[in-house]
Design brief:
With 545 residues, the protein is an alpha+beta fold. It has 2 domains: 16-60 and 74-254 and 380-402, no CATH class; 255-360 and 423-535, Serum Albumin, Chain A, Domain 1. It is built from 19 helices and 19 strands. It has a 7-stranded antiparallel β-sheet with strand order 1-18-17-13-12-9-8. The chain has a 7-stranded antiparallel β-sheet with strand order 7-4-3-11-10-2-19, with helices on one face. Helix 12 packs across helix 13, helix 12 runs parallel beside helix 16 (445-458) and helix 13 (295-316) crosses helix 16. The radius of gyration is 22 Å and the shape is globular.
């Protein structure tokens, strides 16, 4: 399979995301005089309507903003209900937890796990507050103006895009086995004809239009302290949930300082925990001390560095207030050098090191003034918890799935905690000057996608579109590695796979591209303007002027 899309060159401004209608909504805001944050918000709001299997109003959000002079990070992830405890989860699951959810990745998903659906994994949605908080600090157009396209698509309908329809159908089929009053609204909203909408079919969600109007008019107060909050608390009380009005009212986003490592003379930036961005930074920090070398050897080293990054992230990342090891210790040059020494020339099983102690959409935007945004939001898995609020047209996330049931782990499930998060926005600079935002969505694939995109850009010199289109690999657990068909069968592919197998990697060709994630990137050009790429494996959209 080939991905023939060409990069977009734009002299003034650009929007890149996973759905064309959402990209167009962001571009319309830029043309009305909005800045990159306004465009990012219009795009993000629209994505909840046009790509609901991957993200929704009831999800979480993380963002990195270059304001023209420096980077800012926003952690708009929610916390668990105050009533959620490890003992309650164990009692509800027969004392052993649930089967591990595959989306967590093998390194984290060993042993009993949190349930993937229903009320237990529901955490407070951070998306509405995240939209408001980004606008409060950086927005220029009226907040309500950024909701116009999304409300129109929800009220009057829109034709569902191809890749979204495929993911939607899979999720609806999986929903068939879920019973209980908390799941009753899902089918009415997302499968009103008894099935998922097919590509090109028009789908409406008047409940979401109502919710978005309330958020726009109240600057999200209705969601956390008003009518939506009351409806959520009532629905939880009636159907077995733990979420309360107090949980919603207590929610607050956090402005954080992004963290970075050096790679090939650049700085790669991620957000600090509770996200898994440290896994990408650890891997890149390890690889920065290695020469690329032959193709098979370089891919082997990337895989092994990613394993080490994940081992440390899964061992140490937790709610930032409960971290036992500071991010700075994990990214310290001495620790990265020690982890680099753990690389071997054969496939290994990852083990966490000992530092010194102390379902997703992605978008990026850039404007004529030099402001750039890297933003990611998600409900996790497909439609999150599958709990939908009657009359309001949105699903609640299941981010609590990221908690652990090991009582000794810093990420153990508990009250009012932020769980380990998979969604991570990225940003690239060079000697402090901005290069641009990037991201690759897809659960356990995300740090791996960041490593592969940055290596393709800085080691191979590819433009954003070519770097995104380059064949990918995906490490799941142990020594198992999935590769795309064109990587295994293209020029040099058979020899590369054979070499990796001699090193102990268990290589298999993935049956479809969805496991490899979907990404976007925008790089600022030295002569002015931008060059951008958007995912060709799905319905990626890119617009600029």
């Amino acid at each position: 399979m080939t991905y023939p899309r060409q990069p977009l060159f734009a002299p003034h401004a650009v929007v890149a995301t996973s759905q064309p209608l959402a990209a167009a909504a962001g571009l319309a805001v830029l043309r009305r005089g909005g800045n990159a944050v306004d465009a990012a918000l219009a795009t993000a709001v629209t994505l909840t309507v046009v790509q609901p299997p991957s993200n929704d109003i009831g999800g979480d959000l993380f963002a990195i903003v270059w304001d023209g002079e420096r980077l800012h990070g926003l952690n708009a992830s929610g916390r668990s209900p105050a009533a959620l405890t490890r003992e309650l989860v164990l009692a509800a699951t027969g004392g052993r937890g649930a089967e591990p959810a595959d989306a967590l990745g093998g390194a984290q998903a060993r042993g009993p796990a949190m349930p993937a659906r229903g009320w237990l994994p529901v955490t407070v949605p951070g998306v509405p507050a995240g939209w408001r908080d980004l606008h409060d600090r950086f927005g220029s157009l009226p907040f309500a103006d950024l909701f116009v396209d999304a409300i129109g698509y929800a009220e009057h309908g829109h034709p569902v895009s191809t890749a979204t329809a495929t993911a939607w159908a899979r999720a609806v089929a999986g929903h068939a086995g879920l019973t209980g009053p908390e799941y009753a609204e899902f089918s009415r909203v997302y499968a009103p004809t008894g099935r998922a909408p097919r590509p090109g079919e028009r789908w409406r969600n008047p409940g979401a239009a109502r919710t978005l109007r309330l958020i726009a008019e109240s600057r999200a107060e209705e969601f956390y302290r008003g009518r939506i909050a009351a409806a959520l608390a009532d629905h939880a009380a009636r159907t077995g949930g733990l979420l309360t009005g107090d949980d919603l009212a207590a929610h607050a986003s956090s402005w954080v300082e992004p963290v970075s490592v050096r790679y090939r003379g650049h700085e790669v930036w991620e957000l600090p925990p509770n996200g898994q961005g440290l896994a990408a930074l650890l891997a890149l920090g390890i690889l920065d001390g290695c020469e690329p070398g032959a193709a098979a050897q370089w891919m082997h080293r990337q895989i092994e560095a990613v394993k080490l990054g994940f081992a440390d992230a899964h061992a140490h990342v937790a709610d930032p207030d409960r971290m036992q090891v500071p991010a700075a210790a994990l990214l310290a040059p001495g620790y990265l050098a020690a982890r680099r020494a753990d690389l071997t020339e054969v496939a290994a099983d990852p083990v966490a090191g000992e530092p010194e102690r102390g379902g997703t959409v992605y978008l990026c935007t850039a404007d004529a003034g030099g402001m750039m945004v890297s933003l990611i939001q998600s409900t996790y898995l497909a439609f999150g918890s599958h709990v939908v609020l009657p009359g309001y047209g949105f699903a609640l996330q299941n981010r609590g799935l990221g908690f652990r049931l090991d009582a000794a782990h810093p990420n153990v499930v508990g009250p009012a905690k932020r769980p380990f998060h998979t969604i991570i926005p990225g940003f690239l600079t060079r000697n402090g000057a901005p290069v641009g935002p990037f991201g690759v969505m897809g659960g356990h694939m995300q740090p791996q996608g960041h490593v592969q995109l940055i290596s393709a850009t800085l080691d191979a010199g590819l433009d954003p579109q070519a770097a995104l289109d380059a064949p990918r690999w995906y490490w799941h657990a142990g020594r198992s590695v999935l590769v795309e068909e064109q990587l295994a069968t293209g020029p040099g592919g058979p020899a590369l796979v054979a070499d990796l197998r001699t090193r102990g990697h268990e290589i298999a060709v993935a049956p479809e591209p969805t496991v490899f994630g979907y990404g976007q990137a925008i790089w600022r050009r030295a002569d002015g303007g931008y060059v951008a790429g958007s995912e060709s494996r799905v319905d990626g959209g890119i617009s600029g002027f």
